[in-house]
Write a structure and sequence with these properties.
It is a single chain. The protein has 14 helices and 15 strands. By secondary structure, the chain is of the alpha/beta class. The protein has two domains: 229 residues, Spore Coat Polysaccharide Biosynthesis Protein SpsA, Chain A (Alpha-Beta Complex); 85 residues, no CATH class. The strands form three sheets. A five-stranded mixed β-barrel has the order 5-8-6-7-9, surrounded by five helices. It has a four-stranded mixed sheet with strand order 10-12-14-15, covered by helices on one side. Strands 11-13 form a two-stranded parallel sheet. Helix 9 packs across helix 10. It starts with 6 loop residues before the first helix and ends in a 6-residue tail after the last helix.
Amino acid sequence: MSRRVDGWHAVRAVIGPFECMPASPCLQARLTSLLLDVEIFSCKTFSTLGRRRKAPRYAEGMSTGVAGLDRFYSIIPAGGIGSRLWPLSRADAPKFLHDLTGSGSSLLRATWDRLAPLSGPDRVMVVTGRAHRAAVEAQLPELSDANIVLESEPKDSTAAIGLAAAILRRREPDVIVGSFAADHVIADVRGFRRAVTQAVAAADAGYIVTIGIAPTEPAVGFGYIQCGGPLQIDGAADALLVESFVEKPDLATAKKYLEDDTHLWNGGMFVARADVLLARIGESDPTLLAGLEALADAWDDPAARGPAVDRIWPGLTKIAIDYTVAEPAAAAGRLAVIPGTFDWDDVGDFASIAKLHSGGRSSDLAILGENARVLSDSSSGIVVSQTNRIISLIGVRDIVVVDTPDALLVTTSQNAQRVKSVVDALKLSGRTDVL
């Protein structure tokens, strides 16, 4: 008989060490949200990954009375090839198009299903590459033609999110937009939606808002958000002022951040009024904003759109929104953060996928592939197979094996981040046929 841990015991386990000491505003917000989740989690197990769910029933947006939620529009940037997941993820089949959790849904589909009940399925815009249009539309049959934005080439997050915001502002001048990556994994959907709802309220008050993730380890692969004091915003009880954005730290600094209760991971989620977001882009890079505005002017005219994209898009600055929006907004005291207490994984490498399938147990072997044929003896890690070959593992720990028809990767979980260097080497050698 399996032992079940209910939500109250889980919350007590988190709160226990802090009961007799003052908590930082960042920690207080996290614990408050956890307490609100007691009833939710006490009725179900924590892990829902790998379980097939019924198709969601969408409303036309949640009617919670939260300021701004009726004007909220979701944006899903679906770009990048996920080079640390090569050879599974390729230019023509990037990671957001794959089911990496065993749920039966791709990461893109799961992202849509999290957001559509918040904004309504007719208020979700996807920004993706021209080469991925057919695959995206096949996975998201609800997506209307007006809500798919096609990039002629990758230009990073400022251009992708900024163009979507500029298009939507022309359609609805007072729209509030939220950007959420297509390739992240979040099992606690209810906790996620609660955080987004608060972010919308804070955005309606004029802030650029991000959702921070409570760190669970001293990760050096993420940026960090330094939390300040609480903001008194109706509908956003957990909102905190952001003191600063911190680039990916070294291990010693990351350990300090984990201990001090004032730092959250930067999960790359941003919510803002479209006019506020675009004004911030314009302050950072007026030329970039001018290009985005010119594209938005032409976007809803089918005859003008293509020529405008071909003329303007290649010349846009390629830069992340962290640099053009988040960091300047933090410096100006106009960036807020909602501490997210939900689980989150950016599925950045094969070690992350192994954790998702093993529940964090390093002794387990995760196997992905409909026809995978794996024999294992005293081995752990992950095997991804897209062939009919038999893969035998004997006495190897934390191994990563990815077997595809034209490429084989063998490494370890500890070196999973270095897979990107293989992709870089293949590009330099001209072997792009396997990318």
